[in-house]
Amino acid sequence: MIYPIEINQRFGIFPGAMPCVFIKTGNGGTLYGEKGKYLTLAERINNETGRFVCVAANPVEEECNLLDEVSFLLSNFPTIDEITYIGNSNGAYVGAQQVWKIEIIKRALLINPPLMINFHKTREGAECFHGELMMFVYGDKDPSFRFFELLSTIKNESVQSFFVPGADHNFTGLEDKFEELIMFFSRK
Fold first, then answer.
1. pTM surpassing 0.70?
2. Whether residue 19 has a cis bond before it, omega within 30° of 0
3. CB 25 within 8 A of CB 38
4. Residue 34, class by beta-carbon neighbours within 10 Å (0-12 exposed, 13-18 middle, 19+ buried)?
5. What span, in angstroms and rounded, lies between the C-alpha atoms of 110 and 25?
6. What pLDDT does 161 receive?
7. What domains sit in the chain, N to C, each tagged with a CATH number?
């Protein structure tokens, strides 16, 4: 199985209705993910919600500029008028720091972004966010979970934080919970 539209091995797309669900993979993540998890997830979101879904790779050798990525997406799909952002690991870290710069991103689900690296930038990005909801979710076995309380220092009513008992950084053995979380957020 492949994406209906693939652009430069950077974007995998399932066309559909708005809002667009934009999934940013972890550091070094491809469009497909381990065992095709992102492709399967994107197809499920599209099939069950009818939403336009874009999965964005996260090459190790490049620093992610989310504004450039979204601008590129909009230049190819100008009917996109709202984005629900979902980031995993480094994709969540990038989202925490950059989604506030992109007005059409109204909601952001940030799964296990590293908190021990430049937390001041994460806090600044979260405090500048003017969308409806920015949700941080951590597994209580994730290395960053020991810094979970730092999230309470973020001053923004739109920011929420939750944890998933028993989940590690990759939701090992709890992949169904990972998928349920993303599906729940994609339906809103």
1. yes
2. yes
3. yes
4. exposed
5. 11
6. 97
7. 5-187 (3.40.50.1820)
Q: Where are the beta strands (DSSP E) in 11-157?
A: 11-14, 17-24, 51-56, 83-88, 105-111, 133-139
- The β-bridge partners of 133 are 107
| 35 burial via Cβ count (<10 Å: 0-12, 13-18, 19+) | exposed
C-alpha 39 chain-centroid distance: 14
User: What is the tens place of the pLDDT at every residue in 120-153?
Assistant: 999 999 999 999 999 999 999 999 999 999 999 9
- The C-alpha angle 56, 133, 24, rounded to 5 degrees, equals 10
Are the CB atoms for 40 and 68 separated by under 8 Å? no
Cite the DSSP H helix spans in the chain. 37-49, 66-76, 90-98, 119-128, 175-187
